[in-house]
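Run CTP synthase through structure prediction, thanks.
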Amino acid sequence: MAKAHKYIFVVGGVMSGVGKGVATSSLALLLEARGFKVSPIKIDPYLNVDAGTMNPTEHGEVFVLNSGLETDQDMGSYERFLGRALNSENYMTGGLVYKTVIDRERALGYEGKCVEPVPHIPEEVIRRIVVAGENEKSDVTIIEIGGTLGEYQSVMFLEAARLLKIAHPDDVLFVLVSYLPVPGKLGEMKTKPTQYAVRTMNSYGVQPDIIVARGEVPPDKKRKEKIASSSGMKPEQVISAPDVDSVYDVPLNFEADHLAETVMKILQLKTRKRTPFLSPWKSFVRTTKKTTGEVRIGVVGKYFTTGDFVLADSYLSVIEAIKYAAYKNGKKPVIEWLAAEEFEPSTGAGRGGNKVNMRPSGERGSTETSRSNVAKLKKFDGIIVPGGFGKRGIKGKLRVIEYARTHKIPYFGLCYGMQLMVVEYARNVLRLKEANTTEIDRETKHPVIDIMTDQKKKLAAEEYGGSMRLGSYPAYLKERTIARSAYKAEMIHERHRHRYEVNPQYVAELEKAGLLFSGISPDKKLMEIAELPHAKHPFFLGTQFHPEFTARPLDSHPLFDAFVRAAIKKKK
Ligand code: GLN
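Sure, done. The structure for CTP synthase is below.
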């Protein structure tokens, strides 16, 4: 282990969903601004080996790394705040850690010893944390432990943190992200839940060095003092983190409350740059507040509702990518969720998902009551159909795509949104009425989207986990296309997550009918981007990959940028 390497553990108290991911990303940014290389790590305590097998409505978006690892949306937040790609080592789940230990045991890796949860699980956690820091040659590693203090499954990870602290007392720091409620009837901020969270943390043998006090409003001086004294800290170790309009304000709020300086003082770190180089971030935040007019984008999906809640989290990277492009073009993004089923013809799509995919547990039959609502799409400047799986909502999505194509509304299809764009084109322009993806109809007469050859075996063997075409692949862009002029490059690399592809047998026919495959794999076998030429439509483009995963606040994605520009133009 490098000698002065520093480790910061971020844990959550009181309740979930208060923004540990954003707090972790923001602290990483503030330390990088001072000249340190920071490796952020996300630990998800659950037993899934990766995030790929979870329904987005249960767990939020599945964020894919360059390596192809399917991870948690917080990894996306880290990449966006730091402006760079992260490695597989920066993510682990409880399942992955246990699996590694058990596999090692089966290979006699413990040489006949009794293998026990403690110490072998925490030891493996520490090994992974150290490797991640070494791979990135970082100075500081920030480890966010998912979940909330007191949950049984986090115990092994807190134990790893405790052991690391014992081995390196001066180099390990704990941040507790807590919540301070202001109960409506009382009208005053309460610190007691945070005090209990600290005590719970103490019961694991660890003590917070910093408390990030989340709440509707910042804690006042008296409350900061109270939290500090009851937790054995100084008031400056309690950092205000009130609700904000935009997560991008958080680093600046932390900076105003001297978070990075306090962390550095405790870890005995000396600033490597005289003034924190935060100006690019500050000017980005300025663009988010200085917009003239808006651009209205409709996102047609199906992972929006869980019970009474709308979970924009399912499409988090898509939303952020739209925002960056809108801000870059001086517009306020207005994003509206549209449930695909609303646009289905009255018969609905019928019951039952298809069996061939990853069987998201939330898959339900169509609502069967919805009237076609396509006319309300008129009010949008642009429409996106993002990634998805299975049958539910498909008829609605196809109607939306047809409407966007025939009414010249800028359309951007992401993965499934591209595949369905090809299905729509085949049905309505090529007049192949039965054209479909074999994901929905295995026996279709015209499988314009078909399962990839190597995927067939995997599905037959019921190998669903981590088995799609995943991660970053190169693509070549044809000259004089919308894609090429957006990227201003001949070769691109983008991240994928799919099992199906455009069927090569239909490419010539589709191209003859006017659909252009402007991005293709270097071996020319896979169609990675489909578009209609400018003369036929202002912007009708779909990507087999997920451009949203590489959009960054300080570096908006070229295709989202081109799409938003087309949307703004349509508005005029
Ligand atoms: N369901 C499609 C496939 O597996 C699209 C996947 C996606 O949108 N990520 O190919």
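The domain at 6-283 is CATH 3.40.50.300 (Rossmann fold).
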